[in-house]
Amino acid sequence: MARGGGGPIAHEPLTPADSVITTTDYHTAGEPFRIVTSGVPPIPGTTILEKRRYAALHLDQVRQLLVFEPRGHADMYGCFVTDGEDAGADLGVVFFHNAGYSTACGHGTIALVTWALESGRLPRRDGANRVVVDAPSGRIETAAMVERDRVSSVRFRNVPSYLHAADYSVDLPGRRLSCDIAFGGAFYASVRAADVGCQVTTLDLPKLIELGRAIKRRIEATTEVIHPVVNELRDVYGVVFFDELGAQGGQLHQRNVTIFADGEVDRSPCGSGTSARLAILYAKGMLAAGSALVHESIIGTTFVGRVVGDAAVGGRAGALTEVEGTAHLTGHHQFVLDPDDALGTGFLIR
Q: Is the pTM of this model over 0.85?
């Protein structure tokens, strides 16, 4: 199935300054992350949300060039690196994916911090390194462990997460199902995979993609999902389908796959989605503060998440969450746009 038009994309030629765009690519628990390192001028704006708006208006050709085929694919993810909002942050970030610009990305935060330290953008030392990142959802504190001059893991403390709507009823053709909607930097609907006759396996993935799109559309057609403090943080970004695997070694263990943006499939356990899951489990008394959630992805990789404290989100009870994972370098790239290429900035096919 074609997406993004499925054919040649109308575009204006990129300016000469943008004719060669370099990136450094990582994967976090299997999920790709393409970091723009040169070829794009500094993004103006006082806040990251302002920078995000600017990117959507003025840099979308670059996003398409780096995400769409033939240079990327329907499940590619990446970012523009920016300055932080003030001296309290080490760097800022504008995330992008197949349909636009997200407000949060946990796997991307892990990869970004790993790159910033391993590339020398920020100084590093063996042991714990504190790195503060300004994202569209807010300020994120991270702790990166460096061993033998390499980043071995990154733990991020997310913006306050909360359960937005418990047991929300979704009517689909021929069925009704229940989901929990929670915020973990972006809004996610959580659905038990068994409730839709599936398991979190690659065998059921086509059905889960179809259902994820349908659930997202239905929720957004029937209710407004808006952050109580920041109106620009809104709408259902993804649907988390999960399997409950019980407790292993005294730790709660779940497997999930997140379908987000335009049917994009997260290969990782989804960092901001893990925060949303933690908020749900904590609010429902299923996970105590300090206890670990081992969150497994559809490919078997894991993040470890915990609730580390209470938080208020616009008068709502919420939770402070931490999520830990590891990113690995996959390559360095130079991308160009041939002015004679009829496909322009590309196309998407699912």
A: yes
